[in-house]
Amino acid sequence: MKDYEVPRALSTEEVQAIVLEYRQASINAMEAGFDGVELHAAFGYLPNQFLAESANQRTDQYGGDHTNRNRFVIEIMDEMCSAIGPDKVAIRISPTSTYNNIVHQDPKGQFTMLIEALNHLPLSYVHIMNVPFPADQYPQYPANAVEYFGGGSQHPIIANCGFTKETGEAALVEGTAKMISYGTLFIANPDLPERFEQNASLAEPDRATMYGGQDKGYIDYPMMNQ
Fold first, then answer.
1. Would 73 be classed as within a structural domain?
2. pLDDT 10s digits, 113-136
3. Is 89 in a helix, a strand, or coil?
4. Domains: count for the chain
5. Residues with catalytic annotation?
């Protein structure tokens, strides 16, 4: 394995150029036949790094207060929407995730501002990850990110992270979310909707194979009828 490159801060001009690269990527996706594009602004990806104080140490207009740290994401979303039209762009956020050493000092204030800004854009949905965290270490985090931030969104909410059939159905009934997305369960159960419908047992995912870059653990889980 090669050593990781030592990161450096992007110049302001490079940041603005990357915003336009997201715009072009959206155009490319639509030309390739996709129905829409979701910006992954969660789990330590570049947009998430701009959102978090633990990663964003900038002193220009993309760092500092909530408005500045939200700016990169908002500019990307605005460019994507203008490039491919209304109801074709969405975003995924993880306000309570500490993955990849991401820490937010005031997630309630910052992500409330972000949701309010997103309300002015013609998005298809907002995808919120309700990532568990050690509450004693992060008392500033809302206990349920989907409930806390989703209530302020004018767009449909997709909820993600750790949902079972029962908890997913409960969130839909309560109106916490319009849709539930399943990741790990779908990897291990390619026929997950049928298993839910039949109340069938679920296969356990092999976490040792995740993020390994190989076929094993991604496309070799059997269907119920196999």
1. yes
2. 999 999 999 999 999 999 999 999
3. strand
4. 1
5. 45
